[in-house]
Design brief:
By secondary structure, the protein is α/β, with parallel strands linked by helices. Helices cover 25% and strands 22% of the residues.
């Protein structure tokens, strides 16, 4: 397991994140699905712990793209953790991992809601933490900290509740 980052570099062009204090590989977005599938199938990374968004705007000495999605993976078999970082600029997209890890569905929605990072192929990319009428993405560095937004109607997420009930055999009337 100690040779994961060199293996990812050889197979997928990843590189070690020199600023990270733990195992973290930077990977191109077009190689993300292939690399994550490889890690899950070959190295038993069976858990996607979290997806974190990062906005590097104004960060000293940062020369890369503005945003990053950081995937925290864990192998419960080998008791090893690894982080993958996919960087994107405004208007670029990262492929969804919800087909590989179903929990990514909600985690990607949270990152999109807070940072505006778009996950291509996501089936239901809509607000999760902010109300449906919210404009902007509040964890971006250029979002006005004191901006207030009016909520006129609450989103009850009924579409998801009804779908889940029907899946469980209930008829929604």
């Amino acid at each position: 397991m100690n040779d994961l980052i060199p293996e990812l570099a050889e197979k997928f062009g990843a590189m070690a994140d020199e600023r990270a204090i733990d195992k973290c590989a930077i990977i191109a977005t077009d190689k993300l699905i292939e690399a994550v599938s490889f890690l899950k199938e070959t190295h038993a990374f069976d858990v996607l712990i979290d997806i974190a968004g990062v906005d590097y705007l104004g960060m000293e000495n940062h020369k890369g793209k503005r945003f990053a999605a950081i995937y925290c993976l864990k192998s419960t078999k080998n008791m090893v953790r690894l982080r993958l970082k996919a960087e994107v600029d405004e208007g670029e997209k990262i492929p969804t991992l919800s087909q590989i890890y179903p929990i990514a569905d909600w985690q990607e929605r949270e990152v999109w809601d807070q940072f505006g990072i778009v996950f291509e192929g996501h089936h239901n990319l809509k607000r999760l933490l902010n109300h449906a009428e919210f404009e902007g993405h509040p964890l971006r560095k250029d979002y006005p900290a004191k901006k207030r937004q009016w909520l006129s109607e609450n989103d009850q997420m009924l579409d998801q509740l009804e779908k889940r009930l029907e899946h469980l055999g209930y008829k929604v009337v």
